[in-house]
Amino acid sequence: MSKLLKIALRNLRRYKRRTLLTTSLVTLGVVFVLVFASVSGSFKAMMIAQNTDAMLGHLQVHRKGYVASIDTLPLNLNMKAGAVSRLERVLGEQPEIEAFSPRIKFGAMFSTFVETTNIRLNGIDPEREFATVPLLPGRVLEGENTIKRGEIWVPELLARGMKVKVGDTVVIIATNQDGSVNGKQLRVAGVLESATGPGGRDGYIHIEDAAEILRMEGREISEVAVRIRDFGRLGAFGERLAALLEKEVIPQGKPLFEIHIWEKLSPFYNIARMIDVMTFFMKLMLVAIVLVSIMNVMIMAVYERIREIGTIAAIGTRPGRILFLFVLEGLSLGVGGAILGNIVGAAIVFVLNASHITYDFGRQKDLLLRASVSPADVLVLSVIVIAISVIASLQPAFKASRMEPIKALKHV
Amino acid sequence: MALIAADCVHKVYRVGDIGIHALKGVSFSIEAGSFVSFVGPSGSGKTTLLNLIGCLDKPSEGRLEVAGVDVSALDRRQGASFRGEKIGFIFQDFNLIPVLTVYENIEYPLVMVRDVPVRERTDRVMALLNAVGMIEQMHKFPDQISGGQKQRVAVARALVTSPALVLADEPTANLDHATAFQVIELMKKMRDTFHTTFIFSTHDPKIVGEAETVHTLEDGMLNGTRTRREGNHE
Predict the structure, then answer these.
(1) ipTM score here?
(2) Average pLDDT over residues A274-287
(3) Residue closest to A119 by CA, chosen among A226, A6, A237, A210
């Protein structure tokens, strides 16, 4: 094996320019895919984190039918005290869950005594909410990064439009599900940065203030946001939790709850998917580059060495060994290209990070590009390149191994 | 028993629709340890016959046995194994592997054909390097040595597996007269040292006399055999 490898490497060295060109091509392909995957992966990770850690949570549980009408924030589809207890019991028993936060969501009028507009509000229990969506306090542009009873976080655009500052008093007026109107004065505790995604322009108040405004008699909530310990296992956990919650039924035998992971709640999941599809096509292009370049160089190698193949076949080299010799040459080209490509790609990603490149996402400005090369990406790319190198070499190598020595020796 | 026994061997090549009768019923036998030459003009069938003896091709008709094996019965893989075990080849153009040194070229059949252990490999290669007088050039590559030296390396490579038979197709065609004689002398010396049968083809009348047995081929037929002790006979 080591002798075969030595011969293969020396044969590659024999045609230096061609070997350099092919290896460069493979290297370039690997670099493109690696840098693209790193940069797009960074963007995707930021986007998912913005959606899950600043607004939605990893998954949400609602009363059955709520999400279908979520645009109207229907108070009549809130979960009542009994259902909330049942849900909290089930969620509390799951060791995979890191935190969960009940919310009351409703639409209201926002008045500064001078002007009035409408607002979507989330009533939250601050401690539980921040444990579930830890990036939420980070969105406070001005004011306090926590919220107490009698306070409100106002979304940035609304604050600017209504000329509201931290410390101002505003009035929230809402209609409860019985049609009764109620209002409450609140102090502006903070101005919240707008985020791109569902709920990115909502205001926040304390959950007890929300219950008071809506004159709720018992405990009542609109949704429970859940954060799990291992985000990578969200799909499997979501299915398991859905199965568990399906057992919780109303007297008519119908399910009481519905569960949605963030992907079903945010349109940005489709962008994340599109990034994956683009990365897949980049990999497909890499496959084409490796396949064509290595097959081309190996076909040339076989054609130029027909007499040599005839000689080694005549002196008794078995066809399998001749095949292996040529496959090793292609494999070496692939391995060389993969190693160089990964090194150069990682170096470019390092330089990109060191350059502190920023970009905008929706209304969010100056987000820092944090590209990272994951070992899994390097491994997958290397395996693709090496496997395709072998596949590309097989046809020319097979042709070499099947050559009639007598014809090959006569070749001029 | 003869090392090679040919009985009415025919070989017909097809080129398009035309059949070319390269050998027309050739019969002969060669004893082990002989130093034999096939002579004749271009197109007389020398190379065809050597290819058949070397199991690189199969007779169209007749029976050809080499070391007791009917060469027609060997498939591609068996043919390769048989050549690796029993036959050494020397080519007109030397056919050394350009990316291997002199030492590695001689070692090649022991690694790639026979899987001989390292120590034994070294001993055999060094012995042959000594025998062919190429020890000084062992680390050189083929493009760094002369034609005569290349053919010496080819002789050593052909002998390294201790084959029963070495076939040399026009081994001196690309060499000057003096070097050609040296190569033939070397082959003879190797025959004496290793008791290997040497068969070579040539159309050079000056070196024909060096063979102990000379078979003359003309137009695909054996046209006379001469041995040095017995003189000419039909």
Answers:
(1) 0.88
(2) 90
(3) A210
